[in-house]
Amino acid sequence: MVDIRFGERNVVRVLPCATGVTEGPYPDQSGRTIHVITAFNPRGRVVTPEDNARAHASLLAELGRSRHTWWPATGGSPCGTHTEESVAVTGLTDAEARALGRRFGQDAVFAWSPEAWRLLACFEERSEAAGWRTTSAPGGNPATGASPASAENPASGDSPAQR
Question: How far apart are CA 117 and CA 2, in angstroms?
């Protein structure tokens, strides 16, 4: 499960489901893949909240230098008992998303496209695909087209748009 905040009131929850199923609006009208990446708990080791906050700040700084469009996200277990602060990024290839995940010690990143919800291993070329469905997350409504957020002002937009 991933919640992506495309604006103050526009939070989309993406849930994996059966392969081949895609239900709900896909927020990027041009169909670009949205990669979800975290810097929390590198290599699966639970670290202090302060270490996670520093790692997340480093991830945001790197995205700021890259000039990719991104939005705040929260990734978690399907039942929501474990969550990690994350980012949802457009403009990356799968290889670039994996490399970014590797730099922050992540075992995997998510790749959300109109066709599938994929888990991409960062330290090998393995991936697993599923379907997806979107719902309103607590505090938001499913995304529809609007203006983009940016590395400089991530809360400015409601959903991705072409850059």
Answer: 11
In the chain, the amino acid numbered 32 is: R
DSSP-assigned beta bridge partners for residue 107: none
Is the dihedral angle over the CA atoms 71, 75, 31, 33 positive or is it negative?
positive
pTM: 0.85
User: Is residue 37 within 8 Å of 100, Cβ to Cβ?
Assistant: yes
Q: What is the pLDDT of residue 140?
A: 54
Q: Would you call 16 helix, strand, or coil by DSSP?
A: strand
3-state SS record for 101-131: HHHCCCCEEEEECCCCEEEEECCCCCEEEEE
Rounded to whole angstroms, the Cα distance separating 141 from 134 reads 10
Query: How is residue 130 written in tokens?
Result: 């599923």
β-partners of residue 127 are 120
Instruction: Summarize pLDDT for 32-64 with one digit per residue, the tens.
Output: 999 999 999 999 999 999 999 999 999 999 999
Cα–Cα separations (whole angstroms), residue 124 to 58, 92, 94, 98: 23, 18, 12, 9
